[in-house]
């Protein structure tokens, strides 16, 4: 069984948001509600100013607090892949997982639009679908029990590590790399489009995987280790810890 | 135990004067229910909850959850107050036990109704929560315990309907125990969240317990005076002795404990440099915080500590009303404050998040008040809720 993980190299990431856009297209996201986002931070005041950025998918935690708090087990960790998923058939929309996720990566459907106009009103849908995007993934990929497809009303969604692709990868493969024709189709959309190749995806349980080599050789670190969530997303930042300024330190 | 009502001049719930008093209460409650429920339901059915001011940036639980927890904890506190007689045999509290239990049911119905309107898929919750056994989730336990509490409380009340001579009920051990458990677990729902510094801490269940109890004493006091037409002299001597003695003193002590916990947490929060705790700086700079702390905790404490005001009916009403309002503000500040620090939102949310309830969210509060009062007033009018207070 693989334990899929991601490595993001902050030294080469340009903050171009191609990953965010690819994810939004791949996973039918509402504008402005990005499962994968690149966050920008500014500290200080001109001329002593620092601008930094951080790509942030769901951390697919090893000890996910979102799973522990979910009263219905709608949020669960898939044993075959180590990916944290949401079963939309069991989600009651209590939003406890959103409260309990230290990385702020979950999205409830019944909120005011992040970006006007409200595309849900522009592209209305019938049945369970909350909207009918003009672009959308093929219907056969949709699986409500894994939170894949067009998010219904009243439930929470999050990044699935492109489960619909990753879960189809050949057994035993160590890395899913867009440059390898054999694994290209199974590589998560955000990894596949990253122009400077700052994102890597592979099996953290496979000692031969490239992601493990990167973490070991370049000192991969995880965000907010103090939470104990143990993310399966690692950051390379030239040896130091990734610079994510706290709200307090950013106050000028 | 001597059988008597706590109203001196009349007895029996169906006398002309009291019947019309409860009917009037019921009519006012139904009007509130129609206004609040009508607005909230129309908005939810027409637009969905996108009209609420909660958001994906970080304020996930808004006024609806504040209302739900406020009514739920008031309910459990009232069941604990009733347990003083039913479980611990404190005969002094017998005159108010029945009223406290009916108010507990009223609060529970009002709060749970709002929760059902807030949840994304309330019907799924009915089967998915009990069937999936997520023992690690405090919310799973809360739902289970609230269900058991509601059923046991309903059984106790059903047994009391129009039976004015009911004495101590052994089933109240279960109701009181469940009320205590619901209160503590409600605290754990927040207190366990290490990623939310304003909420995190083992003291939160205790804070909830104290707030639940002090709120229940305030509601008991207010509704007892309401039942007597806000006229202290209408009370029977034994009830008045309770109100001027043990109940008022207990109320003062509970308010003091509430003040200590509230102020203690604020001071700790202000002192701390830890990320997340800056919310305390924001909150204590707002007038609402001081209205709640000084106007709705300190002032009622003074009123209940000074012998002259403690035994004065009108001062008791004022103190009770202030505490009832103050607890709602405190619950609001606690729940919203815990979510104000954005988590990994970068420049999308560069400052502390802001929130104020939308009209629809306020309507849910009106709905809860209307529904709870409808249950209580109907109980008093037709089911003997006030036969033996
Ligand atoms: S980052 Fe949040 S949503 Fe993702 S697995 Fe961890 S706790 Fe769950
Ligand atoms: S919102 Fe859904 S997935 Fe999240 S904790 Fe509630 S039931 Fe679970």
TrEMBL record, chain B:
<feature type="transmembrane region" description="Helical">
    <location>
        <begin position="362"/>
        <end position="381"/>
    </location>
</feature>
<keyword id="KW-1003">Cell membrane</keyword>
<keyword id="KW-0472">Membrane</keyword>
<keyword id="KW-1133">Transmembrane helix</keyword>
<feature type="transmembrane region" description="Helical">
    <location>
        <begin position="100"/>
        <end position="119"/>
    </location>
</feature>
<dbReference type="InterPro" id="IPR005614">
    <property type="entry name" value="NrfD-like"/>
</dbReference>
<feature type="transmembrane region" description="Helical">
    <location>
        <begin position="287"/>
        <end position="306"/>
    </location>
</feature>
<feature type="transmembrane region" description="Helical">
    <location>
        <begin position="61"/>
        <end position="88"/>
    </location>
</feature>
<feature type="transmembrane region" description="Helical">
    <location>
        <begin position="171"/>
        <end position="192"/>
    </location>
</feature>
<protein>
    <submittedName>
        <fullName>Polysulfide reductase</fullName>
    </submittedName>
</protein>
<feature type="transmembrane region" description="Helical">
    <location>
        <begin position="247"/>
        <end position="267"/>
    </location>
</feature>
<feature type="transmembrane region" description="Helical">
    <location>
        <begin position="139"/>
        <end position="159"/>
    </location>
</feature>
<feature type="transmembrane region" description="Helical">
    <location>
        <begin position="204"/>
        <end position="226"/>
    </location>
</feature>
<keyword id="KW-0812">Transmembrane</keyword>
<dbReference type="InterPro" id="IPR052049">
    <property type="entry name" value="Electron_transfer_protein"/>
</dbReference>
<dbReference type="Pfam" id="PF03916">
    <property type="entry name" value="NrfD"/>
</dbReference>
<comment type="similarity">
    <text>Belongs to the NrfD family.</text>
</comment>
<feature type="transmembrane region" description="Helical">
    <location>
        <begin position="318"/>
        <end position="342"/>
    </location>
</feature>
<feature type="transmembrane region" description="Helical">
    <location>
        <begin position="21"/>
        <end position="41"/>
    </location>
</feature>
């Amino acid at each position: 069984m693989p334990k899929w993980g991601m490595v993001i190299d902050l030294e080469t990431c340009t903050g171009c948001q191609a990953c965010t856009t690819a994810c939004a297209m791949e996973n039918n996201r509402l504008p402005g509600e990005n499962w994968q986002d690149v966050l920008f931070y500014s500290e200080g005041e001109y001329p002593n100013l620092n601008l930094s950025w951080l790509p942030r998918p769901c951390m697919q935690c090893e000890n996910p607090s979102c799973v522990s708090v979910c009263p219905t087990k709608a949020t669960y960790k898939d044993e075959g892949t180590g990916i944290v998923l949401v079963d939309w058939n069991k989600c009651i929309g209590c939003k406890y997982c959103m409260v309990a996720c230290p990385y702020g990566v979950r999205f409830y459907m019944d909120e005011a639009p992040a970006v006007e106009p409200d595309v849900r009103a522009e592209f209305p849908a019938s049945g369970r679908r909350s909207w009918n995007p003009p672009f959308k993934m093929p219907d056969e990929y949709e699986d409500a029990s894994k939170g894949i497809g067009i998010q219904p009303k009243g439930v929470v969604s999050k990044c699935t590590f492109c489960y619909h692709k990753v879960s189809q990868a050949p057994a035993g493969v160590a890395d899913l790399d867009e440059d390898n024709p054999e694994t290209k189709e199974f590589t998560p959309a955000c990894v596949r489009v990253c122009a400077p190749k700052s994102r890597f995806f592979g099996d953290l349980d496979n000692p031969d995987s490239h992601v493990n080599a990167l973490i070991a050789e370049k000192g991969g670190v995880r965000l907010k280790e103090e939470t104990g969530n143990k993310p399966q997303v690692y950051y390379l930042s030239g040896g130091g810890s990734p610079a994510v300024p706290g709200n307090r330190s950013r106050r000028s | 135990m001597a059988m008597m009502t706590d109203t001196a001049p009349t007895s029996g719930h169906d006398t002309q004067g009291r019947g019309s008093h409860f009917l009037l209460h019921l009519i006012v409650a139904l009007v509130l229910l129609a206004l609040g429920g009508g607005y909230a339901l129309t908005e939810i059915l027409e637009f969905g909850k996108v009209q609420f001011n909660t958001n994906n940036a970080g304020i996930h639980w808004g006024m609806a959850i504040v209302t739900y927890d406020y009514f739920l904890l008031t309910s459990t506190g009232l069941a604990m107050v009733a347990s003083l007689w039913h479980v611990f045999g404190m005969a002094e509290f017998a005159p108010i036990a029945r009223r406290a239990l009916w108010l507990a049911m009223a609060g529970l119905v009002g709060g749970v109704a709002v929760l059902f309107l807030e949840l994304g898929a309330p019907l799924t919750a009915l089967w998915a929560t009990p069937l999936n056994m997520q023992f690690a989730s405090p919310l799973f336990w809360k739902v289970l315990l609230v269900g058991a509490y509601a059923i046991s409380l309903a059984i106790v009340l059903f047994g009391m309907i129009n039976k004015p001579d009911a004495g101590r009920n052994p089933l109240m051990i279960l109701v009181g125990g469940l009320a205590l458990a619901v209160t503590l677990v409600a605290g754990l729902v927040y207190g366990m969240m290490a990623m939310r510094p304003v909420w995190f801490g083992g003291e939160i269940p205790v804070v909830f317990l104290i707030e639940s109890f002090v709120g229940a004493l305030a509601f008991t006091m207010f509704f007892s005076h309401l039942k007597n037409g806000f006229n202290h002299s209408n009370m029977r001597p034994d009830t008045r002795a309770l109100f001027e003695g043990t109940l008022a003193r207990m109320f003062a002590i509970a308010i003091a404990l509430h003040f200590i916990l509230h102020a203690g947490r604020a001071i700790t929060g202000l002192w701390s440099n830890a990320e997340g705790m800056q919310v305390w700086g924001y909150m204590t700079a707002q007038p609402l915080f001081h209205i709640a702390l000084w106007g709705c905790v300190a002032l009622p404490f003074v009123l209940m500590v000074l012998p002259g005001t403690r035994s004065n009916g009108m001062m008791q009403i004022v103190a009770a009303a202030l505490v009832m309002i103050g607890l709602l503000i405190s619950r609001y500040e606690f729940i919203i404050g815990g979510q104000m620090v954005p988590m990994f939102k970068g420049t999308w949310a560069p400052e502390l998040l802001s929130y104020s309830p939308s009209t629809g969210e306020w309507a849910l509060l009106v709905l809860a008040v209307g529904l709870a009062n409808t249950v209580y007033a109907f109980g008093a009018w037709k089911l003997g809720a006030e036969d033996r207070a």
